[in-house]
Design brief:
This protein is mainly alpha-helical and 153 residues long. The chain has two domains: 1-41; 42-148. It is 86% helix and 0% strand. The chain is built from three helices and no strands. It has helices at residues 8-17, 22-38, 44-148. The longest helix is centred in the middle third of the chain and has 105 residues, at 44-148.
Length: 153
């Protein structure tokens, strides 16, 4: 940054004309010149240069941020695809397990029904034999009863 040019003699003359003594006018002009020469004051060129630097930095940040957002977007998309794939795999696995369980249950139920049919067939056969035995016994009792009964007049 550049120092602002300052005419101390011109200021001292103006102060003297305004009523300052020569010594006061010279002292004030020198003090102001010292203050201005020690300070870094920005010129219009400095401000324009700084403005260009700030714009370039903002554009750089904007570009970097755009890349970061695009990267995060891609990362999130990949995560979503991975989650979708995992969900599909889990769903397929669950379906397979359910089908296997269903087939196993069906086979077990079929075996149980076959055993029940066999047991029912055995019970039917036993019941038929017992019923036949009871009929045979009843016929025998009736025939014996007729034999020992007196004839009817």
């Amino acid at each position: 940054m550049n120092a602002v040019p300052f005419d101390t003699l011109k200021m001292a003359r103006h102060l003297h004309a305004a009523g300052f003594t020569t010594q006061q006018a010279n002292g004030a002009a020198e003090a102001l010149a010292d203050a201005l020469s020690g300070a870094d004051l920005a010129t219009k060129g400095d401000v324009v240069s700084l403005k260009a630097e700030v714009k370039a930095e903002i554009n750089s940040l904007r570009t970097g941020l755009g890349h970061e957002v695009a990267g995060l977007r891609a990362e999130v998309k990949n995560e979503l695809v991975a989650l979708q794939t995992e969900l599909n795999n889990n769903t397929s696995s669950l379906r397979t397990e359910l089908k296997a369980g269903d087939a196993g249950l069906h086979a077990q139920m079929s075996r149980e029904f076959a055993l029940m049919r066999r047991d029912m067939e055995v019970l039917r056969r036993d019941l038929t034999i017992k019923l036949g035995g009871m009929i045979f016994l009843a016929v025998g009792i009736i025939l014996t009863a007729f034999r020992y009964m007196p004839p009817h007049p």
